[in-house]
Amino acid sequence: MLKSVHMLWMVALAIIVVLVLVGRALTVYPLCLMFVRSRWAIPIRAQHILWWGGLRGVLALALALALPPSLPFRIEIVIATFGVVAFSVVVQGVTMSPFLKILGLGPNPS
Question: What's the predicted TM-score (pTM) here?
Answer without folding.
Answer: 0.74
